[in-house]
Amino acid sequence: GCILSLMYVNMCLGSAECLLLAVMSYDRFTAICKPLHYLVIMKPHLCLKMMIMVWGISLACSAISCTLTLNLPRCGNNLLDHFLCELPAMVKIACTDTTTVEMSVFALGIVIVLTPLLLILISYGYISQAVLRMKSKVGQRKALNTCGSHLTVVSIFYGTVIYMYLQPGNSASKDQGKFLTLFYAIITPSLN
Hints:
Layout: H1 2-33, H2 38-41, H3 44-70, H4 87-92, H5 99-133, H6 137-165, H7 174-191
Membrane topology: Multi-pass membrane protein
GO molecular function: G protein-coupled receptor activity; olfactory receptor activity
Pfam family, one: 7tm_4
């Protein structure tokens, strides 16, 4: 049960959400910065390619990080003091040096978390420039309404994910990890 939960629910879907948020920001960028070319740029074929890329990268990163984590030896009590079978919780119950696994997962985290975040920030940088150049207050308001919900979800999701996964192993309390897991696993999808 924990392997399925870790592999598919947490890692693969979490990775896919990071990448999908980047794809959504590109969609917003195209809609606001190139509205007359939107239908030409965002063809169904391009959308399909982006979805295949998102799921392919998500599955690959999930398989790598889960394989590394699940191959760690565990000694004694293998019970997780956590709501979900999270990767940091699995690493903590290992009875060996986990530095290599933590560094590998951290590197994958940079690819899966920070690269899409950088693309989102670049997209919203261009969107901000386009909105500031608009002369119509109604147009500015429409553009901000288009992006507002996405920016809220991006802020909540990336804030909790970066805090959970891109920090040194022992710096957060167990209860804090549980709360943050519930926060990005339940609150963010319900807002999206």
